[in-house]
Structures are given as structure tokens and as C-alpha cells.
Specification:
Radius of gyration: 22 Å
Structural class: mainly beta
CATH architecture of the largest domain: Beta Barrel
Number of domains: 3
CATH class of the largest domain: Mainly Beta
Largest sheet: 6 strands, antiparallel
Mean pLDDT: 90
Number of helices: 4
Strand content: 35-45%
Length: about 280
């Protein structure tokens, strides 16, 4: 089947490296789609692309695309009755960004770069639920087990070079005026020799800020102590939109001007240069 997406990669910091997954067409009768990302033998639904309503085309920005590994995208198409019409063809890309980026999956605008400290991710444990029991008459034990878990209690200490980065990292866990889930997405730099999954979603309940040279006035280097366990990301149906209707409305004085500027609704939905202007 055809209809493979076009993948448009951006590696700038506005707000962070990302890929636009653009489907220009779908099979006849398609009214909704699920978009999938496959990387490192793991498949994820793309955030904001779960049973996404379509009218012939769809554009989504994936801020969770990992670095330094092959990544594939495809979509499952559904008709108005919810019946699957099959999958589109697959498109592949590899994004080689040198820096490690971190963000809260629900707020990609707050992303920042970090550097792992020398002690980070040096020991990774993936325990298996279970125990060894000794039935009567058996000399050796028998394993009664469940399934293997993800990474548990990994040291994820990082360091940043500026107060702006430090404030951004703190904000990922909530502020005095906002609440969020304490899950962060680590996208490890392409050449970083860190054996964490790509991407790596970590549940972190305590963030320890450790001054390096800020207090003595010679710089703004700050370290953060973090220990986290691998968790599922927030449901991919939840998304904070990068481009909103308010942004588009702020750019045009009248509806007629809006209609004259964009030939199609897809063109308006892809004008990400206007994001955050409202």
C-alpha cells in the first residue's frame, strides 16, 4: 500500500530538534489514523496522532524522535465505522544530533540540552519479578517469575552551563504556578556512548540541584542529581499544541485575509513559524 509519509527534519532549538510527519494522502474512505514510530525495536504511537481525524491529509510534529538510530513512521487508517483500512507504507529517517536533549513530553517548548555526568548510567538494572521457592523433596530451587521490568533506579545525573537551562530543567517537574507529571524524555546525543533506550522516558520524583561555580561568581554551571526508573510516557493522546488557532487568528485581521493566504487547511496547520505568536 502507498501513502508513505514525508519526513521533514529540523535540528534547530525552536524549541528543539524534531521531525514533521506529513501524510499528503490516504486510502479512500479514511477518516482517522493512528501514526506509529518504530525505533530500537520498540513501537510508539506518535503524540497527538491517536485516532486523529483527517480529511485527506495530516501533519504532526514528533518531538520524541530519538537521535543516532534509524526511525520509521507509518499510519494505520480507519474508516468512519472504525474499521481498519490497513497501514500506509513506511518512511525512514535518522537524525544525528550531537547534544542530549531533555523535555517533559507534555511541554516540548520547555526542552533544553544537558550533558550526562561521568557517573550517569554506568549501572543499569532491569529486574525480573519473582522468587526462588523450594518445594518439598526438591534439592534445588524453582523459579516462580513474572515478566522483566524496565530499567530501575538508574543514576541520571546531568550538568548544565547556564541559569536558563537550569530553570528549564526545574520547570519540567512543575513550578509554583503549574503542575505536571514528573516524567521526562531523554533523547541521547547521537554519538553519546550511553546504553539507555532511545528515547528514554524516566519517572523522576526527586531533583537535587547542586551548585558548581554559580555561588562564587565565576560561571553558571549547575549539576542536577537524579535517579529515575523507566516508565511509560504520558498517554500519546495528550499533547500541548505547538501551533494554535489563536496564533493563526492573531496573524490575520480578517477571515478573508486568512482564506486568501492559505490555499488549504493543511497549509494553515503546517505554518509553524506562527506558533506562539498569539
Amino acid at each position: 500500500m502507498a501513502y508513505a509519509p514525508t519526513l521533514n527534519v529540523s535540528t534547530d532549538a525552536a524549541p528543539c530538534p524534531r521531525v514533521e510527519v506529513l501524510f499528503s494522502s490516504f486510502a479512500a474512505g479514511t477518516t482517522a489514523v493512528d501514526v506509529y514510530r518504530l525505533a530500537g525495536d520498540r513501537e510508539y504511537l506518535v503524540r497527538g496522532a491517536v485516532k486523529a481525524v483527517v480529511a485527506g491529509a495530516l501533519s504532526r510534529i514528533d518531538f520524541e524522535i530519538p537521535f543516532g538510530v534509524p526511525v520509521q513512521y507509518r499510519a494505520e487508517m480507519f474508516d468512519s465505522g472504525g474499521l481498519s483500512l490497513g497501514f500506509t507504507d513506511t518512511a525512514s529517517v535518522q537524525v544525528d544530533v550531537a547534544e542530549t536533549w531533555v523535555h517533559n513530553p507534555l511541554d516540548p517548548q520547555g526542552a533544553t540540552t544537558v550533558a550526562f555526568r561521568a557517573n550517569a548510567a554506568r549501572e543499569l538494572q532491569r529486574p525480573t519479578e519473582g522468587s526462588v521457592v523450594y518445594p518439598d523433596g526438591r534439592i534445588v530451587g524453582v523459579v516462580v517469575s513474572g515478566q522483566r521490568r524496565g530499567i530501575q533506579d538508574a543514576v541520571l545525573d546531568v550538568i548544565v552551563d547556564s541559569i536558563v537551562q537550569a530553570d528549564a530543567l526545574q520547570a519540567m517537574f512543575g513550578t509554583y504556578g503549574s503542575r505536571t507529571t514528573p516524567v521526562v524524555c531523554f533523547r541521547i546525543g547521537a554519538a553519546d556512548r550511553v546504553r539507555l533506550p532511545r528515547p528514554f522516558f524516566a519517572g523522576i520524583l526527586t531533583l537535587s540541584e547542586q551548585d558548581q561555580n554559580y555561588a562564587i561568581g565565576t560561571g553558571e554551571k549547575i549539576a542536577f542529581g537524579m535517579t529515575g526508573s523507566e516508565v511509560s510516557p504520558p498517554t500519546p493522546a495528550l499533547v500541548v499544541p505547538l501551533l494554535t488557532r489563536a496564533d493563526l487568528n492573531a496573524a490575520f485581521t480578517t477571515r478573508a485575509a486568512f482564506n486568501a493566504y492559505y490555499l488549504t487547511r493543511l497549509a494553515a496547520n503546517r505554518d509553524y513559524a506562527k506558533a506562539g505568536t498569539a
